[in-house]
């Protein structure tokens, strides 16, 4: 029995270490060593690094090898370029501080891509990993920023499910028309909704969204008492002037 308990504890300890970036027998590379892996004739291979993680990208030689569209990424950690698209010497750097949430999500997406499609080699000693292969403060800050960006993305997606964008069209003769459908805003659903102006705290202006006009408010069970008006009573919504309250489309005349 004690052997089983010991094995379980060992497994938990290993999982804890893996979550913190410690991998058994992980290869550590210096920046000078990584520069030798640019895929040129006579060089030992073709590697790139992202957030300090090194991947063997030999299978993508036509993209990452000499003359390829992404050859500037080879033999280095150019994490910032994955977000900015700047492949000049100034952009091919590993500093990801100050990036916006969408840019951080781009790095996260690329990291998932390399994990899924290329062989991991080890870690680059420098900004993101120390000489023992342990995560640095810079990596912890980057991962925390990415986690926050993912949280923001999830919240934004939830808001989009609650308030899908309206369809819209404009013409000089008829003005602007907003309308709702069961696919408007790219959100497929079993309700149509009615157009409303949505105001967000701290943001100037409004945007047109489709709002459920029946059933309980968003997130409230049907079993709870409710007014059967969906989300129409949401405090950040405003009805379009001159538009019938339950109309599925609104036309705003120009001039």
Automatic annotation (TrEMBL):
The keyword Signal is annotated on this UniProt entry: yes
SUPFAM superfamilies: Cytochrome b5-like heme/steroid binding domain
One Pfam family matching this protein: Cyt-b5
SMART domains (UniProt xref): Cyt-b5 (SM01117)
Domain Cytochrome b5 heme-binding, residue spans: 29-125
Signal peptide span: 1-21
The keyword Signal is annotated on this UniProt entry: yes
Keyword set, alphabetical order: Signal
Superkingdom assignment: Eukaryota
InterPro entries reported for this sequence: Cyt_B5-like_heme/steroid-bd, Cyt_B5-like_heme/steroid_sf, MAPR/NEUFC/NENF-like
GO terms under cellular component: endomembrane system; membrane
Job of this protein: Heme-binding protein which promotes neuronal but not astrocyte differentiation.
Family of the protein in this entry: Belongs to the cytochrome b5 family. MAPR subfamily.
Protein name as catalogued: Neuferricin
Organism: Zosterops borbonicus
């Amino acid at each position: 029995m004690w052997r089983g308990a010991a094995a379980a504890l060992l497994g938990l300890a290993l999982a804890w270490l893996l979550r913190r970036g410690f991998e058994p027998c992980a290869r550590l590379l210096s920046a000078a060593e990584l520069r030798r892996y640019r895929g040129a004739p006579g060089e030992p291979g073709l590697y790139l690094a992202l957030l300090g993680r090194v991947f063997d990208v030999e299978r993508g030689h036509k993209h990452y090898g000499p003359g390829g569209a992404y050859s500037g990424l080879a033999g280095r950690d150019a994490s910032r370029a994955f977000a900015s698209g700047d492949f000049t010497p100034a952009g091919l750097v590993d500093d990801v501080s100050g990036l916006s949430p969408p840019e951080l999500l781009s790095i996260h997406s690329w990291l998932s891509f390399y994990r899924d499609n290329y062989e991991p080699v080890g870690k680059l000693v420098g900004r993101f990993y120390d000489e023992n292969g342990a995560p640095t403060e810079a990596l912890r800050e980057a991962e925390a920023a990415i986690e926050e960006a993912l949280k923001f993305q999830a919240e934004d997606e939830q808001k989009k499910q609650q308030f899908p964008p309206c369809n819209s069209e404009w013409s000089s003769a008829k003005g602007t028309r907003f309308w709702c459908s069961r696919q408007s805003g790219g959100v497929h659903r079993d309700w149509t909704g009615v157009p409303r102006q949505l105001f967000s705290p701290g943001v100037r202006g409004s945007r047109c969204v489709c709002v459920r006009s029946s059933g309980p408010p968003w997130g409230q069970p049907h079993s709870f008492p409710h007014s059967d008006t969906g989300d129409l009573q949401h405090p950040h919504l405003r009805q379009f002037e001159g538009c019938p309250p339950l109309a599925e489309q609104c036309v705003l005349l120009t001039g």
